[in-house]
Specification:
Helices cover 37% and strands 25% of the residues. By secondary structure, it is α/β, with parallel strands linked by helices. The chain has two domains: 1-65 and 182-224, 3-Layer(aba) Sandwich (Rossmann fold); 67-148, Rossmann fold.
Length: 238
């Protein structure tokens, strides 16, 4: 089942600057999709278009399920003056924007997700006092409160210790495999990310240049590394 369908998406922040140039992409239920590319290639812009934060024509993007979103960590998020429980619970707000209180179902959902991500026992702790890895788990839990179908994450391990980054990937992989959660993740951490992702989309200068299974992406990298090493050892034969 296709959860997100993108057809011939063009987007620019000005008429002289087209950031995305004819993007065609399908995100299927159960994908663990990693979007990679150099800085400025259009990765985060694509995510914002999917979320509706960048305005595009309605026929260019079709989203069939509510999306949970984890943006890049900012200073405001890091110092947010609230408890873990309050931050996680706030993720349920999009489910009923006209209500000013949380329902019993909201509270049960948040509790179950905090237990799943090993946050329940410290739920009264202030968010600003947490380590980087704990904060990311809280923000993932918040995203999951909005949906159990698909979450989008923009650089979820940026700035984290490698050991903590692996823990975050393992949590996401477990949710993908056991809860059938579809994961779409932007990451610079390609080597580690592809250990967990099932599919890789590479963007270069606003265009998709690769959309392959992770196993195929690894094979191409190995082949390219082998060619590079051979060229360095013996140079080109004449």
């Amino acid at each position: 089942m296709e959860l997100i369908t993108i057809r011939d998406l063009h987007f620019g922040y000005s008429s002289q600057d087209e950031t995305l140039k004819g993007i065609n992409l399908k995100v299927n239920s159960g994908d663990f999709l990693c979007i990679v590319g150099e800085n400025g290639s259009g990765k985060s812009t694509l995510i914002k278009c999917i979320l509706g934060l960048n305005k595009v024509a309605k026929d260019q993007i079709n989203v069939k399920e509510r999306i949970g979103y984890l943006p890049q960590m900012t200073e405001i998020q890091s110092n947010f003056p609230a408890t873990i429980e309050e931050v996680v619970m706030s993720g349920t707000i999009p489910n009923h924007p006209k209500k000013i209180w949380y329902t019993k179902e909201d509270k049960e959902r948040a509790s179950n997700i905090m237990k799943e991500l090993e946050l329940y026992d410290i739920k009264k702790k202030c968010f600003s006092e947490l380590s980087g890895g704990q904060k990311q788990r809280v923000l993932i839990a918040r995203a999951l409160c909005a949906t159990d179908k698909i979450i989008l994450l923009d650089e979820p391990v940026n700035g984290l210790d490698p050991r903590i980054a692996i823990q975050i990937y393992e949590k996401l992989s477990k949710l993908n495999k056991e809860k059938k959660l579809t994961v779409v993740m932007v990451s610079h951490d390609i080597d580690r990310a592809i250990e967990y992702a099932t599919r890789v989309v590479e963007i270069e200068r606003g265009k998709i240049v690769k959309d392959v299974l992770t196993s195929e992406y690894r094979q191409k990298d190995v082949a390219n590394d082998s060619i590079s090493k051979n060229n360095k050892k013996g140079g080109r034969k004449k």
